[in-house]
TrEMBL record:
<dbReference type="InterPro" id="IPR046335">
    <property type="entry name" value="LacI/GalR-like_sensor"/>
</dbReference>
<keyword id="KW-0678">Repressor</keyword>
<dbReference type="GO" id="GO:0000976">
    <property type="term" value="F:transcription cis-regulatory region binding"/>
</dbReference>
<keyword id="KW-0804">Transcription</keyword>
<protein>
    <submittedName>
        <fullName>LacI family transcriptional regulator</fullName>
    </submittedName>
</protein>
<dbReference type="GO" id="GO:0003700">
    <property type="term" value="F:DNA-binding transcription factor activity"/>
</dbReference>
<dbReference type="InterPro" id="IPR010982">
    <property type="entry name" value="Lambda_DNA-bd_dom_sf"/>
</dbReference>
<dbReference type="Pfam" id="PF00356">
    <property type="entry name" value="LacI"/>
</dbReference>
<dbReference type="InterPro" id="IPR000843">
    <property type="entry name" value="HTH_LacI"/>
</dbReference>
<dbReference type="Pfam" id="PF13377">
    <property type="entry name" value="Peripla_BP_3"/>
</dbReference>
<keyword id="KW-0805">Transcription regulation</keyword>
<feature type="domain" description="HTH lacI-type">
    <location>
        <begin position="1"/>
        <end position="42"/>
    </location>
</feature>
<dbReference type="InterPro" id="IPR028082">
    <property type="entry name" value="Peripla_BP_I"/>
</dbReference>
<keyword id="KW-0238">DNA-binding</keyword>
Amino acid sequence: MQQIADHLGVSKFVVSKALSGKGGVNEATKNRVIQAASQLGYFAQKNAYIKNQTVAQQTAPSPGKQSVIVLMPNIRFQTKDSLYWGKILEGISAELESRGFGMVIVSDSRVDQFMHVLNPGGILGMIGVGQIDSALLLEVHRLGIPMVLVDHEDALIPTDTIFANNGDSMMRVCNHLIGLGHTRLHFIGNIAFSRSFRDRWLGFREAMEENGLKAPDSDDPMLLLAGVDTGEFTETFKEWLTARQKSKQLPTALVCANDSIAIRVEQVLRETGIEVPGGMTVTGFDNIDDAFRSDPPLTTVHVPKEAMGRRAVRKLLERIEQPEHALEKVLISAELVYRDSTAAPSDG
C-alpha cells in the first residue's frame, strides 16, 4: 500500500480507505488507486488484498450444501425468442444440477443491492456472464469468493475467463467473404462495448491486413456505435449509409459484431432499397435463434453457448480445488454457419 501511495502521491491512509470499500474516498481517487494497484501487481499477490477471508476451499466442495451465484446484468435485454445469455445460463444450470449444486441468479448489478443478497458463508463461488461493473467485481474479490467470468474480463480483477474463440472465428468469416470476391468490407459495431466485440474487430483487422486490404481506422464511426445493445444505433447507421451512397463509397460486405446488429442492418438496407445479398452482403456472429429467421437468414458464427456455461462451472470447481494454479483464459471453438445473406459482390 505504501508503494501505491508513493506512486500516486497520496497518503497510505487514502489507499487503505480506497481498497477497503468502506467509503471516505471520492470515486475519482478510488479509481486511480485501483488502477495503480492493478499496475503494481497488488491484486496478484497472494492474500494481499483479501484479509480475514478464505480465498478458496482447499478440497472439492460437498454437493447439495452450497450454491453458485450467477450474475447476469445483460439478461434483462433478452427477448423470449432471441436468447444469447439465456443459452449460457442453461449450460450453467445443467452442469450445476448434474453435480448437485444450487444456483442463485442475480440480474441487478448495483453494488449495494448485490451485497445485500450475498451471503459468503453459503456461496460456493460466482459466475459472471457478460459485462459487469468493476466496482462489483472488486467487492466479490474483496470477499475472497472464487469467480469465473464468461464473455467478459476485467483488467483490474484477476480471474479465470471463458470466451468463444472470437478472433480466429472472425478471421474465417472475412476470409470466406474475400474468397467470394469482396475487397470492400466494413466492420459494424462498437469495439469498446465488450471484450468479445474488440476481439472480433481485431480478427477482422488481421484478416484484412493479411489479404492486403485496408481496414477502417479505429476512430471510424461504425466502430464506435452507441446503442448496439438496444438497437438505437440504427439512425446513425442509416445516416452513414446514405452518405456512403452519395459519395459512391459503399462497401460490398458489412461484417457485424453480432447477430442482433446484423438483423437491424438488414432491415435498414431493405428500407434504403439495398437488397441482401444482391446489393450488399451481411454477416453476423453468435447464431442466435433470430439469425435463422431473419430475412434473408444470416451467415453467422455459431457460438456454443451452452458449452461455455458448462465449462464455466467446471473451471470454477477447478479453481476451488486448485487455488494456487495460474489463472486461465479458456477459448471455446466456434463454427462458421453459411446461409443466404452472403454472395459474391454484384460489381464483380
